[in-house]
Structures are given as structure tokens and as C-alpha cells.
TrEMBL record:
PANTHER family: P-LOOP CONTAINING NUCLEOSIDE TRIPHOSPHATE HYDROLASE, PARA FAMILY PROTEIN CT_582. It comes from Gemmobacter lutimaris. This is Chromosome partitioning protein. Residues 137-328 form the AAA domain.
């Protein structure tokens, strides 16, 4: 059957080979990749540079009285203004026009929140729950399926926690460095990433192992220049301040991927090295777990050694996924790989533990939850309901929707909490951030529940 007269042919018909050859251009060489990378770097710096201050640093926007009283400090606007008037030593905010709305920095909001907590109603939750004497909770966000919003989810949860008043550390374990870019981090090489902490942990183990070798009359394994230098590195030297006053960062960059090759070499040299404990024990030894309330770990989209370190360190594991067959299938395979990997580690370690009469290794997480991201209720509601039935409690019932606010924030290289609501109308802004507020509420409930359980166990142990 011939196409009707006047009906255009599909675009893949009638392509002229000579015209295609002319448009093709010269072949690409290895050097061509470098040119493409440089062009992308120029563009990336330009995009990331939007919103920088005069010193070239990212700058967090200010927050209005309306926004503070609705989202950050639970008081009426009239009462908020009255308290400021009665306490001139408190931050008074700045107006862009005479008699206009007052705007405050997040630093000022945190000071105001502390004042309300000390002087205001004791029945209102001005400060977030945080038991004394317990370490920070670590939350890993992981999935080896790309495009599920892993880094975006991790970043927004960190921002949510900061707005809630928590002291937050973000650790980027992904050599792509997307999380580092979101928070304006500058990382020159792998020595400004977690790499030296992992190397230091191995070097400390190797020193002990070498002493055993000497005691047996065997030759020790020499510490090379990398391991010797790593022994001098502390976590504090790797932590960067960000444009958020209560979010700090240990960043990542491409050279961090070298750890995926170096860690198995170290493991072969010294089979007794517990590589999965490297990140946890290094952070603990350097006091990081006491300096912060929450630590968010953004992992690579693969189950490599860096991801294993992040997952083993985590108290809570969050797995973003889309409500589609392929993403559900991939996430199921991810959980299967987690089972195989950690079961294999446990079996290998416990064979020796049983033979030596030592306690057996058993990995444990306070909570593991899958989160549906980039959700379209018009098209995915039925499948999401089916997935909920199959996964049960493991799948958080909250759906993180994709809205215009999220899209615009992504285009401008910032989180949705960094978007100025005046760029929208208030209703659009409120609706756009609501889905992330609900996600944070679900995750915060996991954090508070696990802290409370730890608090009760600690109290019971003290009583005994």
C-alpha cells in the first residue's frame, strides 16, 4: 500500500549517504575525548557558577518570615514578629524594600530556633529529637540502577535534615562527584576524598599483621609511600564547609575510582584485613560520629568496594527506585546481590571465627527501605500499588513525585529547598516541596525510631 499523497515519510526514509557523510565530520580520536571533556568542563563550571558570590563560592538563599513560620519554626507569623520586637538582640532580618517582608539567613534561622526552644512553649518541637551520648546515624543511599534519583534523593534528604536543625555530613563515595557539585565542593585529587581514610585503615592493619609475620620469622610487607602518607591523614582535613551552615562535605572526584583497583590488591596482601569496616572505624576513630547528628553516604551505581564500605557503615539503607517494570526488576536484582555479597563475607569470616572460638560476624541495619522516586501518579499508580504489595514494609508508602519545581531546580544545579519560592507562586512552591517534605518525614521516622531503640537499650544496659 502506497502512502497517501501529501503524507510526509518518516524521517529515516530518504537519507542521502553523501549528505550524511558530509555531516559526519572527521573520525574521533583519543585526543577528541579530551576536547569533549574540556568543553563539558567549561559548561559545567558555567552552570555550577550561577549563584556564586563575589568570592566564587556557592551562596544559600535567604528565608522569608512566611517560609520560616510555615516550614521551619512552628509559630504564627504575628507571634514571630512580636518575639523579634521584644528581643532586639535576636536577628531582625533584612528587607529588600522599605516596609517589605523580612528575610533571614539559615544561620539566623538556626539562632532563632534555639531561642524559641529555650524560651518558648515546651510542647512545641522547635529542636529535632537527638539522644545524648549516642553516635550519629549513618544513612546510605544506594542502587546500581542509573536514573532513579539516587544522588538527588540523598542531597535533598541532607538539606531536609539541615533545615530541621540537624548537623549533617555528606560523604560522596561516587567518583562521578555529582553530590560534590551540588554542594559546591572542590576536590583536587583522591587525597581529598575518603581514599586516604581507607588507606590509613589498611596501613594500620598491615603494621599489626607485619608484627605477626616477624614473630613467625616471615618477611614483612613494606608500607609504600601511599600507605605511609595515609597514616598522617585525619578526617577533619578532608571535611569541607558548604554554602549550608550546618552541612559539611567529604567530596569525590574521578581519581577516587582508583580505590576500586587498590582495595583488592591490599586485601590479597593481607587477607585478614576487614575492608568493610574501613570507613566506619576511620570515622569513629577521628570523632566524626560525635561531631554530627546525621551522615549521608551517596554511593556509586555499582556494588563495588566503595559501595560495600558505605553499606557496611550505614545504620539505615535507602534504595531509590522508579515505579516501572525495569526499575523494579533491577532493584530486585540489587537486593539479591546485596544478599550474595554480605552472605559471602559472613560465611568467609565465620568459618575462621568458629574455628578460633570468636564471635561470629553478622551485618545488621536498623532499617532498609526502598523509595519510589520521580513518580507519575497518572501513569504509575497501579504498578506502584502492585510493587507495594510484593515488597510490603520494605517499600515506603510515600511516593516522591516529579513536579515543575523539581525540574526547574535540577536545571539550575540546585536542590528544591534552594529554589526561591518567588520564582513560582506560593501554591506551586508548596506543592512542589511537599513531596520531598513527606519523603523526609518517612526517613526521619526511621532515624528517630532507631535512635529511640538505641536509647532504651543503652538505658537497660546501664541499669543492669
Amino acid at each position: 500500500m502506497k502512502p497517501e499523497a501529501g503524507t510526509p515519510l518518516p524521517p529515516y526514509f530518504g537519507i542521502d549517504p553523501d549528505a550524511a557523510m558530509a555531516a559526519l565530520g572527521a573520525p574521533t580520536t583519543t585526543q577528541g575525548f579530551g576536547a569533549i571533556a574540556r568543553a563539558c568542563e567549561i559548561g559545567r563550571d558555567d552552570l555550577a557558577g550561577r549563584g556564586l558570590d563575589a568570592g566564587g563560592r556557592r551562596q544559600l538563599r535567604m528565608f522569608s518570615t512566611w517560609e520560616i513560620t510555615r516550614y521551619l519554626i512552628p509559630v504564627a507569623q504575628a507571634h514571630f514578629r512580636r518575639v523579634l520586637k521584644q528581643n532586639p538582640d535576636l536577628p531582625q532580618g533584612a528587607s529588600e524594600t522599605e516596609g517589605g517582608a523580612k528575610w533571614f539567613t539559615l544561620d539566623e534561622v538556626l539562632r532563632l530556633r534555639a531561642f524559641f526552644a529555650a524560651e518558648g512553649s515546651k510542647t512545641k518541637p522547635y529542636l529535632p529529637y537527638r539522644p545524648k551520648g549516642l553516635p550519629a546515624k549513618m544513612l546510605a543511599v544506594a542502587n546500581f540502577k542509573g536514573g532513579v534519583g539516587k544522588t538527588s534523593t540523598c542531597a535533598h534528604l541532607a538539606m531536609s535534615a539541615a533545615l530541621d536543625g540537624y548537623r549533617v555530613l555528606v560523604i560522596d563515595l561516587d567518583s562521578q562527584g555529582s553530590m560534590t557539585s551540588i554542594f559546591g565542593g572542590r576536590v583536587a585529587d583522591e587525597w581529598q576524598t575518603v581514599f586516604p581514610l581507607l588507606a590509613r585503615h589498611y596501613a594500620a592493619h598491615l603494621r599489626i599483621d607485619n608484627q605477626r609475620r616477624l614473630d613467625r620469622g616471615d618477611a614483612p610487607v613494606p608500607l609504600d609511600e601511599t600507605l605511609t602518607e595515609a597514616l598522617t591523614v585525619k578526617a577533619d582535613s578532608l571535611i569541607q564547609k558548604t554554602h549550608w551552615p550546618n552541612i559539611d562535605l567529604i567530596g569525590a572526584q574521578l581519581n577516587l575510582y582508583w580505590a576500586e583497583f587498590q582495595i583488592p590488591v591490599w586485601r590479597m596482601q593481607s587477607r585478614g584485613w576487614k575492608l568493610w569496616d574501613a570507613l566506619t572505624e576511620s570515622l569513629s576513630a577521628d570523632g566524626v560520629l560525635d561531631q554530627y547528628d546525621l551522615i549521608f553516604l551517596d554511593t556509586p551505581p555499582a556494588l563495588g568496594y566503595l559501595t560495600i564500605n558505605g553499606l557496611a557503615a550505614a545504620d539505615i539503607l535507602l534504595v531509590p527506585m522508579g515505579a516501572s517494570f525495569l526499575e523494579f526488576d533491577s532493584t530486585g536484582r540489587f537486593f539479591d546481590m546485596l544478599h550474595s555479597t554480605f552472605n559471602s563475607i559472613e560465611e568467609g569470616e565465620n568459618m575462621a571465627a568458629r574455628a578460633l572460638g570468636r564471635p561470629e560476624l553478622s551485618f545488621e541495619w536498623d532499617a532498609v527501605r526502598a523509595l519510589v522516586t520521580r513518580f507519575d501518579g497518572n501513569q504509575q499508580a497501579e504498578l506502584a500499588a502492585l510493587i507495594q504489595g510484593w515488597m510490603g514494609k520494605t517499600l515506603s508508602p510515600q511516593r516522591q513525585e516529579f513536579t515543575a519545581l523539581i525540574g526547574q531546580a535540577g536545571e539550575q544545579v540546585r536542590g528544591i529547598y534552594e529554589a526561591d519560592y518567588r520564582d513560582f507562586n506560593r501554591e506551586t512552591y508548596a506543592r512542589g516541596r511537599e513531596t520531598f517534605d513527606e519523603t523526609w518525614a518517612a526517613v526521619k521516622a526511621l532515624v528517630l525510631g532507631s535512635w529511640r531503640r538505641d536509647e532504651i537499650e543503652q538505658s537497660q544496659e546501664a541499669a543492669q
